[in-house]
Amino acid sequence: MARRIWRSVRGRTTLGATVVVAVALLVGALSFYGILSASIHGATERAAEQRLEELGERAGGPGGGRGIDALEDEILQVIAPDGSVRAASEEARDKLGSTPLPVDDDPRTTTIDGERVLVVSEDLDRDETLVLAVSMEDDAETLATVATLLAIALPLLLLLVAATTWLVVGRALRPVTRIREEVDGITAERLHQRVPVPETGDEIAALATTMNGMLDRLDAAATAQRRFVSDASHELRSPLATIRQHAELAQAHPEVTSIGELAEIVSEEGLRLQGIVESLLLLARLDEGAGTHDEAVDLDDIALSEVRRLRAAGFEADGTGIHAAQVHADPRLLGQLVRNLADNAARHSRGRVAIGVTPAEGYVFVTVEDDGPGVPVEERERIFERFVRLDEARSRDAGGSGLGLAIARGIAASARGTLAVDDSRWGGARFILTLPLP
Known about the structure:
Layout: H1 2-7, H2 9-59, H3 64-69, E1 75-79, E2 85-88, H4 90-96, E3 108-112, E4 115-123, E5 129-135, H5 137-184, H6 203-252, H7 259-287, E6 295-298, H8 299-312, E7 316-322, E8 326-329, H9 331-348, E9 352-360, E10 363-370, H10 396-399, H11 404-414, E11 418-423, E12 429-436
Helix pairs in contact: 2-5, 6-7, 7-11, 8-9, 9-11
């Protein structure tokens, strides 16, 4: 349990913040203690030197030695040139006897009867030296008090930082817990649900908004997939039902039909079934982003071939807008794309179709237009969905399977291009394929 807590974002954030603050406080406390110690020691040195200067004026006058001998609360000695003690205060005699204090040009510390003292010295006349020892117990007590306060305050402050960080991070992550619980309950049947978006306007709110957008896309994809499966089942069931119906009729009443008629119907419906299956397989390949065989393709050759095919079928096909252009793409898929657009135009036209190829500014534009009823503005994106046929094209014979335009847009996307529709010069539909030039 404890390990799981410290592996959480809340635990790691609390631990990290506490460690950083602990290091900062420790460095600050040590620096403060060191500066305070140096400041107190310096103040003690200055006070000792000032007192030594006052005592030196007294010791240098007449009867100076007797004045020093009369001092009771200070450890003071007059050291002769030979190192012997010429005069000493009463406390110095009690604690040191005839032992001289160490003489040095700079202040130094030593220990007398277990007490730490600061020793300063000053030269007098007759080559004598006045030496004063000042107790440092007050300094030690002050520093000990400061150290005790720091030892108590630092852990309390760290505990406060840890508790505050734990509570603040926990409160900040509370929406994440709600989001996680909500997402955990979302299944394929409950994709309509959305996670709560907190009103904080921070990164967590942005995360919730992003997750809701993802759920919207998943819901739309699942809805489209269910619709696709339903439409595909319907389309595949139709030719199978026709074949089964005629087979059962021939079996029950052989006199009303012939083998040739049955074979013709089975062949036609089998070809239709084969076309639907091949279209579905191609769409699956395009959805998976399957690799295509890219090579240099002459778009003008493909367009002229479709113009000749439409003319042979009895349409008034205009190819005057075809100019030379070459792209890198899969020639088979690109040919199928243009053919799907041409077939769609022929299916809805009143007799006139125009195909154009125009390179311009790093792109090539392939246009296929007809003189049919056109596509309403509100339907111009929906017609590229699978199994979508407008009302005037719902019949099996006129409307196809409803996969041609979906395949065309999928091929365009695989070739790093786009496919859109607007109005033609005759009021019908004009499909515009945009592909990048190499």
